[in-house]
Amino acid sequence: xxxxxxxxxxxxxxxxxxxxxxxxxxxxxxxxxxxxxxxxxxxxxxxxxxxxxxxxxxxxxxxxxxxxxxxxxxxxxxxxxxxxxxxxxxxxxxxxxxxxxxxxxxxxxxxxxxxxxxxxxxxxxxxxxxxxxxxxxxxxxxxxxxxxxxxxxxxxxxxxxxxxxxxxxxxxxxxxxxxxxxxxxxxxxxxxxxxxxxxxxxxxxxxxxxxxxxxxxxxxxxxxxxxxxxxxxxxxxxxxxxxxxxxxxxxxxxxxxxxxxxxxxxxxxxxxxxxxxxxxxxxxxxxxxxxxxxxxxxxxxxxxxxxxxxxxxxxxxxxxxxxxxxxxxxxxxxxxxxxxxxxxxxxxxxxxxxxxxxxxxxxxxxxxxxxxxxxxxxxxxxxxxxxxxxxxxxxxxxxxxxxxxxxxxxxxxxxxxxxxxxxxxxxxxxxxxxxxxxxxxxxxxxxxxxxxxxxxxxxxxxxxxxxxxxxxxxxxxxxxxxxxxxxxxxxxxxxxxxxxxxxx
Length: 504
Hints:
alpha+beta, Nucleotidyltransferase, domain 5, 6 domains, six-stranded mixed β-sheet, 12 helices
C-alpha cells in the first residue's frame, strides 16, 4: 500500500478509537483524537481523496436463465459476484450478458426500447419503470461512400486492362424490385435493426419506440438561405427547371464566369466544374457543392493545401441525414414489425421529443432524445456509453506511392504529381511543370496488402503487465504499435484481452 492509503486506514482507526473513548481521561482523549484526525486530513490533498473514492460505474448487465429465458438485467457489481462464485458464466460480450447456472425462471417487468434514429448517430435508451438499463450512442462510419468510390475506381482500372465487356442492363434501378434501397442507405437501416436485435435477444423487451420523420429539404434550404418559402409549383420548378444537364445549370447559375478569377466567355476561357468539398471528401453532385472555374484556376496545385480551391466550403450544408430519414422511416418500422411480431412498436416525431425534453429538463443529446421517448422515464439513470464503429477488415486493396524528383528551381524533393504535365482531361492542359524534373530520387510503386492480421486497431492487449490499445500492425504482422506510447513490440510478447469486434 502507498502512503496515502495508509493515511486513510489510520484515519479510520482513529475514528474508531474516538467512538470507543477512554474511561479515565475521556475528554483529553477525545481532543487528542480530533486534532490527529484534522492533521491527517490536512496532509491529504483533494485529488488524493478523490482517488480513494472508487466510483463504481452503473453499467447494467443482461441476464439469461440456465434454459435461456430472458430475465431482468442486473448491476455490474452483482454480475461480478455471481461470476466469482461460479453461479453464472459469460454468455456474450456486446451487450455484456451472463447466464445463470442455478436458476431457470424469474419474474420480469415491462421494458421499453427507445431509439433516436439518425444517419450518422444513433441514440439508444432501454428503460423499465424504475431503472434505465442502457444509455448508449452509436457513431457510424463517415467515409464509407468514399471508400466504395475508391474501390470502384480500382475495379474499373483493372477491368480496362482486360478484354472488352458488353454493357449489361439488368442491374439498373428501374429493373429492381419494389422497396429497393441504395447499398449505403440499406446498410445504415440494417444497423438500426441489428442493435435492436442485440438487446431483444437478451432482455425481456415488450415495447419499442422509434423516432421517424419526413423532412422537407426544399423548405430547409429556403430557411437556411433566406429565400421565399416554397409553395405550389415552386417545388417542381427548382434551380434546374428547363435546363437539360447539371453542367449547364451550374454555368447558368454562375453566369458562365469563373468564380475564382472572374474570366468568362468574352475572354475565350474554357470553363469546367469543380467540387467545392473535394478536399474534405465531399464529392456529391448537388448544385451547392459545385462551382464554375476556368482551366487556369482548376490545376492540381490549387487543390493542394495552400491552394485557392483548398479549404472552400459550400454555402449550404448537406441534407443527407434528412433525406435518409425520409427514405427509410416506414421501411424500418415495417421490417421490424415483420421480424419481431411479439413487440409493440410505436413511432414518434422530433417535435414531440423536443417538447418532452423541455418538460423533463434534459439536455440535448442523441441518447437523451431516446430517453425522453415512450412511457418510462425513471430517475435512476445508467452511465453514458459511446461506441464508434470501425472497419472490421481494414485492408488496402491497392495503394500507389508516387515517384520523387529533384525540382530544378529550388533543389527540393517533390512528387511526380506536383511536377506533372498539367493535363486535367484529354486535350486540356494547364501549366506544364514536367520540364522542372531533374533527377529521379525514387521510382513509383504499387502496394497491395492482401493479408488479414490477427490484431486490428483499437484491440486491447497486455504488455509488461499493463493494458494497452493497439494503434496498428506493421512488419508483415510480426510487430504491433501501441497507442499510448507509440512503441513497437513483438506480437509474441503481448497477450490479447479483447477484440473490438467492429466497435470501440
